[in-house]
Design brief:
Layout: E1 3-9, H1 11-28, E2 34-40, H2 44-51, E3 60-69, E4 80-84, E5 94-102, H3 106-116, E6 122-130, E7 143-147, E8 153-154, E9 170-175
Parallel strand pairs: 2-3, 2-5, 5-6, 6-7
Antiparallel strand pairs: 1-9, 3-4, 8-9
Helix pairs in contact: 1-2
This protein binds inosinic acid (IMP) and magnesium ion.
Magnesium ion binds at residues 39, 42, 99-100.
Amino acid sequence: MAQKISVMITEEQVEKRIRELGEEISRDYAGKTLHMICILKGGVYFMTALSKRISEDVPVTLDFMSVSSYGDDTKSSGVVKIVKDLDQPLEGKDVLIVEDIIDSGRTLYYLMGLLKDRRPNSVRLCTLLDKPDRRERDVKVDYEGFVIEDKFVIGCGMDYMQKYRNLPYVGVVEEV
Ligand code: IMP
Ligand code: MG
């Protein structure tokens, strides 16, 4: 079946919002070192773009984690497996988890618990997109790019069967 992609959030809107988030986070982390944790693979585009908008007065360090949730392609099961763990310890660090999208909240609920056990100084959560309609777990989102309706989206790191992550806008795939 052929697929058609319609634009939900344009590249310009995404870039503008990331710039704003960068300014907000830079203000909040003044005097600290910001340790950004990217949740692979989806978070990688947002994380690199956001990190470039953090003020040079706030030093940034990066680490990466890869998790997979068992389940079908469009719904996460909440059982999370760590495929690649962080390289560095979190103790005493001011951690910002950077995600592409929060849907049921199960992945992040599990991860927040796990990372807090490693005794960071603080842990906050930043997501490009938030789909609150589908929330099953109470996850506190500290910074969010856009709140969207319940649609399956692609681009800006998000995939449909591993494709479309590279699109610079947020789109919706339709079967035509
Ligand atoms: P949650 O555990 O249901 O919050 O799932 C979060 C993860 O599911 C995200 O990090 C994405 O990888 C994936 N996901 C959820 N909604 C979408 C979507 O609309 N498009 C692409 N991936 C999604
Ligand atoms: Mg993800």
